[in-house]
Amino acid sequence: MVYMPVDGAQFATGFTNYVAWRRYRGGTASYLWTVNLEDLTTEKIPRTDSNDIYPMWIGDKVYFLSDRGGPMTLFRYDPQTKAVTKLIENTGHDINSAGAGPGGIVYEQFGQIYIYDLAANRSRQVPIEIAADLTEVRPHFQNVAREIRSTAISPTGVRAVFEAHGEILTAPAEKGDIRNLTNTPGVMERAPAWSPDGRSVAYFSDESGEYALHIKPQNGGGEPKKIPLAGKSAYYFTPRWSPDSKHLALNDNQLNLWDVDVASGKMTKVDSDYYYEVERDFSWAPDSKWIAYARSLPNRFHAIFIYSLETGKTTQVTDGMSDARQPAFDRDGQYLYFTASTNYGPTSNGLDMTSDEHEVTRSVYLIVLPNDAASPLAPESDEEKPGEPKPAAEAGRGGRGGAAAAEAPPKPVRIDFDKLMQRTVALPLPASAYLDLEAGKAGTVYVLERGQAGGGRGAGGGGATLSKFDLKTRKTDKLADGVSSFDLSANGEKMLLRLGGGGGGRGGAGAPAGPQYVIVSATAPLKPGEGALRLSDMEVRVDPLAEWKQMYHEVWRIQRSYFYDPNLHGVNAAAAEKEYEPYLDQLAARADLNYIFHEMLSDFTVGHLRGSGGTMPQTRSVPGGLLGADFEIANNRYRFKKIYNGESWNPQLRAPLAQPGMNVSAGDYLLAINGQQLEGADDISRLLEAMADKRVVLRVGSDPTGANSREITAVPVASESQLRRQAWVEANRRKVEELSGGRLGYVYMPDTGQGGLTSFNRYFFAQADKQGAVIDERFNGGGQVADYVIEVLKRQLLAWWSPRYGAVYRSPAASILGPKVMIINEFAGSGGDAMPWMFRYSKIGPLVGKRTWGGLVGISEYPSLMDGGAVTSPNFGFFSPEGKWEVENHGVAPDVEVDQDPRSVRDGRDPQLERAVALAMDQLKKAPPLEPNRPAYPNYQGK
Question: First CA to last CA across the chain, in angstroms?
């Protein structure tokens, strides 16, 4: 038979999730083997540097698709002569798939079906016409309550405004209906903000083909005021109104902070950031004449700056020796609040794994802005004061039916910059992981603090706690738990809370529960069920063809705006956008649009360029239950062949049949499930359908007839992948222990994110008594840059210590000082590419296995599409200290290449692991481990 040892996933045409990568030459480039099924001997079909896919054995020849020498086309291989022949000259689009049939090969090329006639050696197109209803293109109303991406509260908290499916909608706190302000199918509107005077809602719209600032009456009536946005940026974020509703501050994807004069439309650049970050922390002064903002510095810390609209001058007001963020002016204009961290340094680059080993804490501060104002936290003392005559009550004040006093205009904010840092005061709040800070009414500040279940460093995870601190009482009141974001009304009376996680995507059957939005008092703790907004009937009119065209142009805009190379790897974006545009009128389904995305983006020839999601037809899936076991059929019964137990010390793994008291062993029979007999011809998955995480009664026994059987109750799991992986890891560790005579440790790295960090810390330091180590990163799913792992592996002996009692020990103690070998394979990529590259660059040891995936142009944040789909834009590329682009579209090659050949694997061997152990043991023989050579104790007498 002929088969693909690797799956060539970058050429998959399942357009719910896809990778767009033409001319791929990394380690996962698919190749073909022929295998003799009798003895499992293999032979590779000749190739130099290509992708060979869709093998078909027809007669005594092998036919396949390959991109050797150009676009993917049809080839033939003769096993006798070893000759490879191109059958179709292809100068157009790739042939995407092929299959053999009687007398020919059917293949698909850019939406057309062809048949290659084997006898005539030529192709003909198959005319296909489908009279279809095309239900996906019909305009319709769609519920978008699960597609909310951006929110804001109205000035008095009677309504909230939302962005959902490209529309801007408002919803009442109590009475009334949801109102669609925009009603623009096929136009994308983003990031709404309600003006403090209550009259207008600002948002970004791409109605003109590029994003502009639109300002529309809050009731939805009339035409919006349209302000073109300056600069070369394509995307703008976080519009925030000045308190007088005359200006808007916003930032863009090119790191600029802008001030927009609403009346004139004039844009003034306030500042540009130093390092790339999408989110910016900034705040308006109550008199609308100052903007405070956080900006990154060359040391990667952030400092607070204040910008004057009157003078156009910017002043740095924190010294950059701590990481200062989240500035907010107090509403009386005398103070500027902010948070700052003095232990931020090790986490200053979230791409580095070292940042995950350190929990950042922040304290809350204020700066007294005028130099003649006292500290609001000056020492207090209770003193008796002589009585004074009470003034006569002012007419109308507080009287029922009296005219309300006109709101006083805000007093001018005075900032004396001389010695400003010396007027910094720490608030009596504990240092913590503060995620957000906002100023409420004068003298109050709100902080969002990550809880214990916050989802890891730097993420709220829906588990944050919202509290309010009062300067006058100097007390902190907890308002709500489980908060993922909050927004205070302009009058300080109300707040909009987002409770829980999820959301921002597409709902439907089987979708996880989304967040809840509530409008409640900003001064009292949240009560269960209080203030929930009725959003379940939030609907918009959808015109699929119109929004597909918008998303088509949006994807090109994203690439032009975010791709790390401004030259787009040589792609003429303008020409390509025009080339594919005519096909938009022929789309019949959302999957067709993804097909176009795949074709048009593949010429970027870059990893991490992929698409997913969107409004695809969905069917309800029923998760099956799994028992964490392998079975074999014996005596017409299901017999347990292996039972997975989760190994030791893995509380997150639940092995259904390895719980105390079950006493099920390999060799036992599974006779019945929930009272239904199970025989060898039955499908066990049918009896476990929809039983994940539910109790099932199993009848088990050692006799296939059921004699002396018993019943046990188990709770199946939805997935066995973690159980099986852990069993593989532990088997590898024991194998290394056995092959090395206990001298080598084994550490597996499933990724370079939290999972890999956890695995490394658990396994490496527990084996610090070993003389060397095998580091296995096969199938590494990537994540961050594993600099932490490299630093630990590089540790060298610095000192021995001799205590009075006990063994001599060393510094660093948490180390393995002997040889290290890393195992790599084709399925390790991204962070799994960077780690072996750095392992070799640091001269830690040899690499064994197969060349890695080859994707080191990374992705960060990028705009989502109108219907919740996503197309990435790789926006930061890796190059070496010597100034060379490395790894991308090639991978990291091993020093010793070892295949996992079928015969060895069938026999229970792991050739790559065995070779890694052999190399490490050979190094140990050449360089035995250092032993302490304790000198004679000193005698200082007589000197």
Answer: 85
pLDDT digits (tens, 9 = 90+) for 837-892: 999 999 999 999 999 999 999 999 889 999 999 999 999 999 999 999 999 999 99
Q: Dihedral of CA 659/662/664/670: which sign? A: negative
Q: Are 645 and 630 in contact (CB under 8 A)?
A: no
User: Long-range contacts for 232-238 (Cβ within 8 Å, ≥24 apart)?
Assistant: 233/561, 234/210, 234/557, 234/560, 234/561, 235/211, 235/557, 235/561, 235/863, 236/191, 236/204, 236/211, 237/191, 237/278, 237/279, 237/280, 238/191, 238/279, 238/280, 238/282
Structure confidence at residue 943 as a pLDDT band (50, 70, 90) = low
What pLDDT, in 10s, does the model give residues 195-248?
Answer: 999 999 999 999 999 999 999 999 999 999 999 997 678 899 999 999 999 999
Taking the mean position of all CA atoms in its chain, how far away is CA 207? 30
**pLDDT tens-place string over residues 58-110:** 999 999 999 998 999 999 999 999 999 999 999 999 999 999 999 899 999 99
Rounded Cα distance between 589 and 616, Å, is 8
User: CA 330 to CA 285: how far, in whole Å?
Assistant: 8
Q: What are phi and psi of 290, to 5 degrees?
A: -135, 145
CA 548 remoteness from chain centre: 25
Distances (CA, A) of 624 to 286, 627, 685: 58, 10, 7
Is 184 within 8 Å of 550 (Cβ atoms)? no
| Cβ neighbours, 10 Å, residue 217 | 14
Angle at the Cα of 243 from the Cα atoms of 237 and 245, rounded to 5 degrees: 75
**Sign of the dihedral through C-alpha 673, 676, 678, 681:** negative
> What is the pLDDT, as a whole number, of residue 459?
42
Q: State the pLDDT at residue 231.
A: 67
Query: How sure is the predictor about 403, in pLDDT bands with cuts at 50, 70 and 90?
Result: very low
Q: How far, in Å, CA of 665 to CA of 642, rounded? A: 8
Which DSSP letter does residue 785 get?
A: B
Q: Residues 623, 687, 666, CA angle at the centre, nearest 5°?
A: 100
What's the DSSP call for residue 585? G
Q: Is the pTM value of this prediction over 0.90?
A: yes
Computed over every residue of the chain, the mean pLDDT equals 92
- Token pair of 914, please? 């065995």
SS3 sequence of 796-862:
CCCEEECCCCCCCEEECCCCCCCCEEEEECCCCCCHHHHHHHHHHHCCCCCEEECCCCCCCEECCCC
**What are the φ and ψ backbone dihedral angles of 815, each rounded to 5 degrees?**
-160, 160
Closest by CA position to 194, among listed 158, 152, 156: 152
How long a stretch of residues is the chain?
A: 943
Q: Quickly list DSSP for 361-397.
A: -BEEEEEE-STTPPPTT-----------PPPPPPTTT
* Residue 650 reports pLDDT greater than 60: yes
Mean pLDDT of 697-712: 95
Report the candidate in 86, 77, 81, 87 with the shortest Cα–Cα distance to residue 33: 77
Distance CA 230, CA 261 (A): 12
pLDDT over threshold 90, residue 465: yes
For residues 367 and 476, the answer to whether their CB atoms sit within 8 Å is: no
Mean pLDDT of the region 758-772: 96
Helix (H, G, I), strand (E, B) or coil at 297: coil
